[in-house]
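Re: your question from the hallway

Yes, I did run it. Sequences:
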Amino acid sequence: QKEVEQDPGPLSVPEGAIVSLNCTYSNSAFQYFMWYRQYSRKGPELLMYTYSSGNKEDGRFTAQVDKSSKYISLFIRDSQPSDSATYLCAMSPRRQGGSEKLVFGKGTKLTVNP
Amino acid sequence: DGGITQSPKYLFRKEGQNVTLSCEQNLNHDAMYWYRQDPGQGLRLIYYSQIVNDFQKGDIAEGYSVSREKKESFPLTVTSAQKNPTAFYLCATRPGTGRYEQYFGPGTRLTVT
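Structure:
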């Protein structure tokens, strides 16, 4: 079983739709969760960063973590064509002065159609 | 203007040649990372460095080498021993101990023929 699973899509939605992107994970030690957005041929951009369980909102984006189910989600409200990109989830356990490395999902490709 | 720069954006080399990819940051971040991205494979960690003059192998270090002589710089050399060097290479930084998020540069697309 892979540490982090992410449906690669592709996911295609009409403009204005609510988008739900998800990752599941197997390592119960993960405590820090991130979502990155990557446009074609560009570097990933950090979108959301959450710690432990709960919700975090930033504009049209909401990140949700459910540690009991080992499941994280990114919701995009009122999706726009400019949201068309690949979305990567990433996570890390807490480390004490050790090597902080991220485990990434493989990404979900999203297209928002005008 | 703070950020991470990678140069060049596109790089072409003949098989058998070593090539060095540049990564520079002025964010004063402690840790730096190199990833390789191939279609359908996600991000794979090549090398990382937490402090100057120290670095560790990642998951796919074979055929690559790095140095960290300055905090701001973490160049990656792709050697002729790397069997499939054509890929998109990404450099990332992390602020320091207790911070887990990473920030990425714009990437270098390496094509070896």
